[in-house]
Amino acid sequence: MSEEINIASQLKFASQHLFNLIFFIGVLYYFLKDTIVKFFSNRSLKISREIQDANTIIETSQASYNITSQKVNLIDSELTELRNSIDSVTSRKTGEIIENANSVAKKIKIDTEDIIKLESLKLQYQVENNILSKALEVAQDEISKEITEERDSDLISSFLSEVKQNAISNS
Q1: Residue 161, in any domain of the structure
Q2: Torsion angle (degrees, nearest 10) of CA 64, 66, 67, 72
Q3: Hey, which of 7, 37, 86, 98 has its CA 20 to 30 A from 105?
Q4: What is the distance between the alpha carbons of residues 133 and 141, in angstroms, rounded to a whole number?
């Protein structure tokens, strides 16, 4: 029986404390219900706003990334175009330079050949002129040795006599 009393007193004690706990929870619920609901509602709204802000930032960042990617792709394509353009201009200019150099080389070759021909002719004429001058000198020396005043008078006399004979025979 003492055990029954002890169990009953323990049940009474436990029920009183359970009642106090339920009462305390009820009072807390009654007074804190609005505050706790407001707290969790505000917390939920705050988390919702932060998620929306994060989504907005992500969307803005994605849009910026897309725009930047398009710009980078455009820059890459323009760089490729510029490189191709530079390559074509360079090869065209190189071809023109080589063509001009070949043309100038041909003209220089032709001019050099003409100069060599002209210099050869000039040297040939100078040699011929020197030879003729020497031949004239030699001839003058020979003539001056062979012709004397006596011989000169004889030649003139002979010439005049021939002219007279021709004049007489023609008349």
Answers
A1: no
A2: 120
A3: 86
A4: 12
In a domain, 163, yes or no: no
pLDDT at 3: 64
pLDDT tens column, 70-82: 999 999 999 999 9
Euclidean distance between CA atoms 117 and 58, whole angstroms: 86
Q: What is the mean pLDDT of residues 2-26?
A: 83
Query: Does an H or E element contain 142, and which?
Result: helix 2-146
Residue 170 lies in a domain: no
Q: What is the mean pLDDT of residues 46-66?
A: 94
Residue 69: CA count within 13 A, CB half-sphere: 6
> What average pLDDT score do residues 40-68 get?
94
Q: 30-34, 123-127, 149-153: which has the minimum mean pLDDT?
A: 149-153
The pTM assigned to this predicted structure is 0.41
Range(s) of the domain holding residue 144: 2-156
Token pair in block for residue 76:
């890459």
Q: CA 121 to CA 65: how far, in whole Å? A: 82
Per the structure block, which two tokens stand in for 6? 């002890």
What is the gyration radius of the CA atoms in the chain, in angstroms? 67
Residues in CB range of 165: below 8 A, 6 or more apart: none
